[in-house]
Amino acid sequence: MGLSDIAAGVEVVDEQRDRGVASVDRTGEALADRLDEYAEDLPCSPSAAATLVETYADGASVGDAARAAGVAPTDGAKALHLFGESVSPVGPMAREVVLDWLDGRLGRVEAVELAGVSEREFALAAYVETHYPIDGAREAIEGALAPGDDAAVAKRDALGETMSDVNDLL
Fold it and tell me: What's the CA gap between 157 and 129, in Å, rounded?
């Protein structure tokens, strides 16, 4: 087979054909409906979880989003963690303390003191370390937590001057 055989049928045109972007989009379905299949694993109802995610995506804190959804702030943080959000109240060193407590190398009182957090924060950190995000749940909320809505854009614009980019590191 020669080059002319390979090139047979190839044509040059002035314009490209717009084929669009291939995607699978479930965002037309209500968020609460998409969360129904995870209801058994969530610390709140799917409708409360949907309100929580939407309020959190609008820029509210975890506590404010949980209150808007009618759930305790800790339950709101647990739900967001199960969706794949990073909500651990402890840093890397305190995380090691929590893991030592979970492994039985430290007593709870000593671990809470060493972690430097409240009992409630310690309990949430232990939950985060012992529960993995739900498989497929991140995809269910995809689009709801994506930046681009008016509140997220306004927040990003307001903080724009405080953020650095790659060129600042050079």
Answer: 34
- Total-model pTM: 0.68
DSSP assignment of the chain, as one string?
--HHHHHTT----SS-----------TTS-HHHHHGGGGGGSSS-HHHHHHHHHHHHTT--HHHHHHHHTS-HHHHHHHHHHTT----SS-HHHHHHHHHHHTTSS-HHHHHHHHT--HHHHHHHHHHHH-PPPTTHHHHTTTTSSBTBHHHHHHHHHTGGG---GGGG-
Per-residue pLDDT of the chain (170 residues), as tens digits, is 787 887 787 777 777 666 655 444 555 678 888 899 999 999 999 999 999 999 998 889 999 999 999 999 999 999 999 999 988 999 999 999 999 999 999 999 999 999 999 999 999 999 999 999 998 888 888 777 665 445 555 666 666 666 665 555 55
- Alpha-carbon distance of 31 to 34, in angstroms, equals 5
